[in-house]
Amino acid sequence: MIVKELVQQMIDEDGVISVEKCGNINIYWCFKNQTLQTLYDSSEKLKKQIQETESDIAISKRELEKTLETGRRKKFTVGQKSYSRDVLIEKRKKVQEEIKKKSTSLQKIESIRWDGAKIQENKQRVHLKKGQLEKITDNIEILVDYLYKKFFLQPEQIRKEFGIPEEFEELTDI
């Protein structure tokens, strides 16, 4: 079994051995020329990868040297213009502060601005609150009526004791 597995591995993975079925017999072969060509192709592929990697390394080294030469100096030149690092950093801080201020003012304006969707949303919220308020007033009236019937207390006395107005204001539709 071990020999069969080894031969199968050499056929499938390595490509060292070739096989062809002839009738009910399998014929295996391997030519020296075929093996050398495979090795040559692999070596050429590896050489090409090495060259590409070396060129990438050279480019990265040049960029690193350029960065080290020009990086973090107090004053530097780009094209015909010369700049001061400290001045540019201060300008950047001021611009960032201005952006923050303007974005907060924009948020305030957006919260104040009323469009159709916001108006509709607020209408729904007011109607919901109105419905809740009406339920609460109905419940208060029911409780006052319950205390009146259960303990024979006058509704005026109950309202006076708990600070409930004699009659709730009518809410008009919005």
From TrEMBL:
GO MF annotation, one: double-stranded DNA binding
Signal peptide: none
Domain Mnd1 HTH: 1-32
Limits of the Leucine zipper with capping helix domain: 119-169
GO CC, one annotated term: nucleus
Residue ranges that the Swiss-Prot or TrEMBL entry lists as coiled coil: 36-70
Nucleus listed as a keyword: yes
Localisation per UniProt entry: Nucleus
Function: Required for proper homologous chromosome pairing and efficient cross-over and intragenic recombination during meiosis.
Protein name, per record: Meiotic nuclear division protein 1
Organism: Saccharomyces cerevisiae x Saccharomyces kudriavzevii (strain VIN7)
